[in-house]
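Chain A, query sequence.
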Amino acid sequence: MRPVNLIPKEERTEGVRPMRSGPTAYIVLGALVAALLGVTALVTTNNRISDLKAESTRLEADIASTEAEAQELQAYVDFQSVREQRVSTVTSLADSRFDWERVMRELALILPDDVLLTSLTASASPGVGPGGAAAVSLRSSIPGPALEINGCAKGHEGVAGFIQAIKDIDGVTRVAVPSSSEGGELSAETGSAAETTACDVDAVTATFQMVVAFDAAPLPAASAEALPEVAASSPEAETPAEGAEE
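Chain A, predicted structure.
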């Protein structure tokens, strides 16, 4: 027997195929997913921007608070700076002091009997000596303490002996004799025979000018110009010896 389907045709479901919509559904689904991702990214970005703005506001508040604290502490910083400057100044002054009393005492001890000093000037630097003192030309080339000596000795041998003796003074680094001549009177400015106090000794008197340098003294750095040499062993020289350094 053949089976007979008694269900009306309009109510039958078997054999009905689903509708095919094609790629449109996938396109719509992809667009929805993309939109969802875009909204998510937008929300996340907005939240991140809000967090950064809040962080920036907090940092600005911290900066303002730190600047206020620094302003309150600036007085202490200024005081410390002034203190360091004053300590440096006092230290520099203490280090730059020179013991002239010791130098004069040692000079008195080593001064030979045949040497007479007509003038003696002690200065810590060029141009600060007492007014009216007899200047020696080579003093300007010595940046630190120095003695300027004008005097007489019994011949050039006496001058040479005085040079050797004066080097026994503690701290003496060089001795210069820009002028030394036998006979006559010594000029305080040029070394020529004129306008100075004569040495009241015999005819073999040698008049001289001398600069004694103390380059090792702790003074501000300055480069001393080299002083020319003097041949202390040439007593027969009749003209002034041009410079000396021992």
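The two ends are 152 Å apart (CA to CA). Helices lie at 24-96, 100-110, 155-166.
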